[in-house]
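Intended use. Records like the one below are meant for learning the mapping from a protein sequence to its folded structure. Do not use them to infer anything beyond what is encoded.
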Amino acid sequence: MTRETRWIGGTTMIAAPLLLLAGLLLRVPFPFFFPHQLAAAVDHPGLLTAAYTLVSAGTVLLCPAVLAVAGQVRRTRPGWAVGGAVLVVAGLFERTFHAGFDQAALALARHRGAGFATGFVADAYGDLHLFSFLSFTILLGWPVLAFGAWRAGVLHPVRALGLAATSALPLGVLKGTTVLSIVAVTGLCVALVPSGVRLLRSAPRPDLRLVLAAVPAVGLLGYVSTLG
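Structure written out for the chain above:
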């Protein structure tokens, strides 16, 4: 791996599962199904916005983290690496699609009321779209990648099981937090965080001047992006 790849892979292996776990924990006080989530968005808008934003950010950051794991598996088990990466990344795209729907529905609840938003989601929930046909990738991808990581010696059995357990994270829109959710993301933390720490420790130190220049530049670009 190059220096940049190590830093990106290591950082996202740590950040992604921790962001997901933080978002799930913020949703613990509220019941699982979407009418309760939408009602909570009206009663606790800041908390629900933070929770869903953290989950969205963790989902997006999982993509480079998964590619870093697959890159390690590919050295000795290329078939499992490619198959697992393709399935998991497709599943992450679907979860990101769900996150967009979540954002729209939560905004609708805040602006038009929880009852109106609940009726809209209930009517639209069963509509077919591209990702309706790809839900199997969320369920199948993590076990495939985990098996490949175990066979390649990238993860020992316990951490490979933790990675595979991520498939138990409930899928769909406006899902709250359950015990199974916490177990699934805790398994993801067990699988990825130690690997991320090890990867960062093996990476050369970044150029401090580049970091100091990049942080405000990214912040400025982010601000400009909100103006469109």
